[in-house]
Amino acid sequence: MSAPVRIAVLGASGRMGRAVIQAASAAASVRVTAAFDRAGSDVIGADIGPLAGLAAMNLKVRDELADAVDDFDVVVDFTRPEASLAALQVCRSAGKGMVIGTTGFSVVQLDQLAAATHEIPIVRAANFSVGVNVCLKLLEQAARALGDDYDVEIVEAHHRHKVDAPSGTALAMGETVAEALGRELSEVAVYGREGHTGERERPTIGFATVRGGDVVGDHSVMFLGDGERIEIAHRASNRLNFANGAVRAAAWLAGRDAGAYGMREVLGLG
Ligand SMILES: NC(=O)C1=CN([C@@H]2O[C@H](COP(=O)(O)OP(=O)(O)OC[C@H]3O[C@@H](n4cnc5c(N)ncnc54)[C@H](OP(=O)(O)O)[C@@H]3O)[C@@H](O)[C@H]2O)C=CC1
Ligand SMILES: O=C(O)C1=N[C@H](C(=O)O)C[C@H](O)C1
Fold first, then answer.
1. What ipTM did this prediction achieve?
2. Beta carbons of 61 and 43 less than 8 angstroms apart
3. Residue in 77, 130, 154, 169 to alter for ligand 2 test, most ligand atoms within 8 A of Cβ
4. How far apart are CA 230 and CA 59, in angstroms?
5. Cα 67 vs. chain centroid, distance in angstroms?
6. Which pTM was predicted?
7. How far apart are CA 252 and CA 262, in angstroms?
8. Which family does it belong to (predicted)?
9. Which has the closest alpha carbon to 236: 125, 156, 147, 123?
10. Overall domain count for the chain
């Protein structure tokens, strides 16, 4: 068996950072060899084991990725876009791969990520759960089969701490459906409705966002026709399913050529 892939966890004290540490410590394919958080954070210097609810691991949270490039093979990033892009520069210079789960990137920021995939391998996914990625395949098939006669509406719900909307997953679902229907999401997306909206325009894809409590992540795509409604939904009940997917992606990514990859490639979904 090959040596475990050494991963650096960004945002180690965050909800996902802690889940990634838990998932990695249960996996033989990877080992957490470096962990980082925001400079000035209370957790700098803390052992990552207790931080993630585990026994001591004798590995301390640091604040400067650039000082640690010899200590890891792949970065696993669940933070905020500005932190992801700062890490991207370090990974480009050091020739390290990245697994990026952060959402909420602007179009300009997405272009920067895309440019970097000519130099380093990056797996980026708005959602690393196997279930959501299977839903994306189902959505593609459903949209192709149902065609233009059904109205598409996407509803997502998340915990009260989430800062971006609609969720990255909802946008990925919208993009998948739009592409299958030959539409450009940026031209047909409607983000919320209020007031006298007029009748629904046929090609639009509507998004609705719910925020509150501790909802881990619910997504539902509705195809609304005359006399029937098809709904493809996913409900996450813990974050380990995202973290396990990210760990799987990190193990898959090590040693790959530069390029833009997604969970479709990692899971072999074609
Ligand atoms: N792709 C997927 O499968 C999933 C993606 N996500 C996405 O992952 C991201 C993180 O989510 P979650 O873990 O819930 O968020 P949290 O707020 O719990 O964690 C974010 C972590 O990143 C750190 N951080 C934030 N900004 C910076 C910065 N500028 N520099 C360095 N560190 C920073 C935070 O530190 P501090 O607390 O000090 O701010 C914190 O440790 C979100 O974009 C979310 O949408 C979430 C779940 C699954
Ligand atoms: O912020 C979260 O929590 C989540 N974010 C991702 C998204 O924006 O789609 C994935 C998951 O739904 C949880």
1. 0.99
2. yes
3. 169
4. 49
5. 26
6. 0.98
7. 11
8. Belongs to the DapB family.
9. 156
10. 2
Nearest CA to ligand 2 atom 10: 127
- For residue 143, the model assigns a pLDDT of 98
For residues 226 and 244, membership in a common domain is answered with: no
Asked if 65 contacts 8 with a C-beta cutoff of 8 angstroms, the reply is yes
**Is the domain of 23 the same as that of 148?**
no
CA distance 108 to 225: 36
Average pLDDT over residues 36-49: 98
pLDDT digit string, tens, across residues 139-184: 999 999 999 999 999 999 999 999 999 999 999 999 999 999 999 9
Same domain, 22 and 112: yes
Q: Are residues 34 and 114 in the same domain?
A: yes
Which amino acid makes up residue 88? L
* Residue 52, C-beta contacts closer than 8 angstroms, at least 6 positions apart: 12, 18, 19, 21, 22, 25
Beta carbons within 8 Å of 96's beta carbon, 6+ residues apart: 69, 72, 73, 74, 75, 90, 120
Domain that holds residue 19: 5-128+239-267
Quick check: 1 pLDDT over 80?
Answer: no
Annotated binding site for NAD(+): 11-16, 37, 101-103, 125-128
